[in-house]
Batch of 2 targets.
Target 1
Amino acid sequence: MFLNQTSHYALRAMTGLVRAGNSKPVKSGELAEKTDVPSHYLSKIMRKMVEAGYVRSQKGHGGGFVMNIAPEDLRIIDVLTASGFDIDEQPCVFGWEMCRNEDPCPLHPVWKRLKDSFNEWAYHTTFEDIRRESQDIEDKFKR
Amino acid sequence: MFLNQTSHYALRAMTGLVRAGNSKPVKSGELAEKTDVPSHYLSKIMRKMVEAGYVRSQKGHGGGFVMNIAPEDLRIIDVLTASGFDIDEQPCVFGWEMCRNEDPCPLHPVWKRLKDSFNEWAYHTTFEDIRRESQDIEDKFKR
DNA sequence: TTTTCAATAGACTTGCCTATCTATTGAGAG
DNA sequence: CTCTCAATAGATAGGCAAGTCTATTGAAAA
């Protein structure tokens, strides 16, 4: 798997929230069911999104989660980072701690190409892209 | 992490073996030390490389592991697959089991771009590329 | 004010990937 | 034939991410 389970869940949840629109808050339970993420686990992930400022939460009656940022201003990297993924902690495949471009490990040149592709994707794809490209696709979160 | 620890180890080990040349077998312990992989764990991984036919092993005195395929014929995807990584088991980030191009999940278009980049890298990079691009780099497997 | 709803917090459990340990098998050297 | 070396096999343990459970906090409705 490219990303860990938590990151997957985070991307799903934010996609679900963006697609739900901003008309009214989306309840954790609803979002969990829609995105097929374990509900209590989703709560933990959404908390991180709230802390990062990408989502607002409302307790109590009629409460739930609402987007707090325009989809075009939210990139995939932002959600991944907020969910705990740290691109800089991804070591070179060699596991050599101090591997840098100027002082590389043997697999560095090859590995760097993969990493660059990933970064291109994660830094340049926004949730507006996701929304636009998925607007003709119906929700099919359930397996 | 893009790949799991085992896949990292496999790539390191095979890189180490390719760089060691074919003059004489490389002992498991030596390869383990050179690539900073736990030695007993490396043995298990090398076993898979042997089973896949990429490496020959020799027991006993003077034994060890030798490449059994030309570096230009061994792709990254081959080593990943042999080590247990299954590209087709990598579900769409939505976790929707039946997600295909013709019948996609909401994140499919975006996710596909990442997957395509990865495949381009894994299917088109050979260990000859790795050897060539690393020939001016000294071994620095230890962290 | 009370009731109900829904997020939050944190402790706890589970499960799997890694890693280790202890034999055993097999091959060459002497 | 025996000794040593090194891969192989399988059982066992460790550690961390993932998932669950229970209680608490906070807000709106009645």
Note: Residues 5-134 of chain A form a domain with the Arc Repressor Mutant, subunit A fold (CATH 1.10.10.10).
Target 2
Amino acid sequence: MSDTRSQLKQIAIEQIRRRTLHAASFRELGKVAGIKSSSVHYHFENRDALLLELVKDYEQDFFIRLEQRCHELSDPGQQLQQLAALFLLSQQSQYQCLCLAFAAAGDETNDQQRAAVEQFLQRLETWISAVLARAADHADSAPQLARVILSALEGALLLDRDQPQAPRLNAVSQWLTTLIRSHSDQQPETL
Amino acid sequence: MSDTRSQLKQIAIEQIRRRTLHAASFRELGKVAGIKSSSVHYHFENRDALLLELVKDYEQDFFIRLEQRCHELSDPGQQLQQLAALFLLSQQSQYQCLCLAFAAAGDETNDQQRAAVEQFLQRLETWISAVLARAADHADSAPQLARVILSALEGALLLDRDQPQAPRLNAVSQWLTTLIRSHSDQQPETL
DNA sequence: GTCTATACTCAGATAGAC
DNA sequence: GTCTATCTGAGTATAGAC
């Protein structure tokens, strides 16, 4: 699977998530990988093609990890916490959400890339909504609440950039637990 | 107040909020204003100085508008709705939050600028928290809930970029009304 | 205040040698 | 696969003419 190629993709992801989309230039990728930018062009048709590939990979990887974590969990509240844990882990590693970085880049992305980002967001919204629907009597409001939760998680991750204590993301994570508690019957044991 | 200077600042704000921080280059500002980039340098020491000025202006303008809207409102629920309305208006005009654009720009900003952004965020958090504290019995959780609300509003605004229907931001706005309803005694009249 | 001219750097992309 | 060399265009910034 072409070692250099996948290495370049990994470097690109790091640049985007730790810095900005803009920072993932062919020159920079080459510099980090120890080759010239012209050699990077050998592995990818152009920059836009690479970026699109990254978004699609990201969606795959994200949901694989999410499902792995929720795999043997039946409680909706615990599943939501796993999602929050994924965001908290990301924050601790000083990683942004790749898709949010794309969203923030605005017209520096093309239509295909924007569509791929939107697909990721809607898939995650759908996932959250399905979890909520199983949690309580709020089956009607689940899609709406899912949008709020996604917005809060993504917003908090971005706002807590350079904030080691992650005050916003922790607040969101904590809020999620209270949300589920009021939606389901079970009592919390130890917090 | 130097017409050209304030015009350049206005153009810069538009570039950042409609596109990205990156799009607010001296060349671009000059092009839109009809002068050369070297002439832009006459009005601002350098780009970083301009950007810092913009963030400080933004904080001022934002809270002036917010206070104007809440001026003769005593109900906390209505005040929160005015905040949401500000975000919805922004979305309709296809404007991002300037501070979120800075946050997303990561290391393309300097320490001073990041500090100014963080100051804006904390001031808004404090404002929301104060409103919440007056709303109900949740005085303890007000600061935490304020962080969730701010994250949700900012996140939704960014996620709904290029989404004319603004599904996330509308969901957040609606969620805010239910929040207050359950926190206060009064019944909603007409939505 | 604005211009031209210039210096330097960075970006994407391609041609052709090895 | 990677290199050098090159083109084009964009960015910050400065010096000095008008």
Note: Chain B touches chain A at residues 18-20, 22-23, 96, 100-101, 103-108, 114, 121, 144-145, 147-148, 150-156, 158-159, 161-162, 167-169, 171-172, 174-175 (CB under 8 Å).
